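Methods — Computational structure assignment.
A single polypeptide chain was analysed. Its primary sequence is given first, followed by the predicted tertiary structure written as structure tokens.
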Amino acid sequence: MKRRDFFKASGAAAAGVAAAGFATPAIAQGVQQWKMVTAWPKNLPGPGVAAQMLADRITALSGGKLEVTLYAAGELVPGRGVFDAVSEGTAELYHAVPAYWGSKSKGILLFGSQPFGLRADEQVGWLTHGGGQALYDEMYGRFNLKPFLCGNSGPQWAGWFRDEIKSVEDLKGLRFRTTGLASEMCAKLGMAVQAMGGRDMFQAMQSGALDAGEFIGPWTDSALGFYQIAQNYYWPGVGEPSSAEECAVNKEAFDALEPSLQQAVEAACKSLYNDVWTEYTTKHALALEQLVAEKGVQVKMLPEDVIVAMGNAAGEVMTELREDSDALVKQIVESFLAYRASISNYMVYADNGQMNARALDYKY
């Protein structure tokens, strides 16, 4: 898909989207018609594709009793307006990432990604088996939402840089696009952090308003064309070792569903997590090969002292979160840190051991 195909304007963002109360969904012969709003351009490789998969899967698993129509960013509400639109009842559900909602509560950010935090499998493990889902529900319940994880990008990249990064000093004053807790980590290193969508990042880098930025990974990034502006593609993306995608449903609408339809929505989200994650991983690998072979992209590892400095900055961010005045935020942070510590100790023997063994020099 060419970048311009999903850069096309999809209609002016609706003004005054806030609704006084939840709008009763259209019902015809037992069929409820639900609106899904998303933070993405339609069919953007990665999240835009995943959003459509989710809409289709909810419709299918409900036996057609819930017909979900997807509205891309700007078609019904702006991409960054989907949280409020669903909270207020303008639409029944949204597809986005928790990293966009830090202005609501910093506790929300941990459900999506954490600097030097959880991988995709560990993230869903925390929610499913480590007590995270109850905290996720409690936090989003404050905003009249019922949340579910429904996908993950896997490890994100450190980003696209015009100039080579040789030391921590090279980061100071760098105008850089990122989101979530990674923004706070980068700011502590003297970076001038800006949050924006993928196409806005392209335009800002093209105009010179940004020096560098990260979005997702090779599959999505190549579709957005960042390689046309910056050729230095850095890893590892320690700011987001994974990035969970979420579906949040208006809680009043969800509670009004019969139990079988509630189960259909939940099953659609949970069943999509691995499908989305493995598609990202597979297509990231293929896209990276093409970026290097066909686009001249230079893949570079961040210097070790830069990674260590980022780790120290991330530690400061977590310390501050542990001291948050909101008791629920503190609970979320402590739950995350406890799970991270436990799973990190085990992974030394499990996945880390396997990957280290696979990297040894032998004939295979």
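Note: The chain is about 45% helix and 15% strand.
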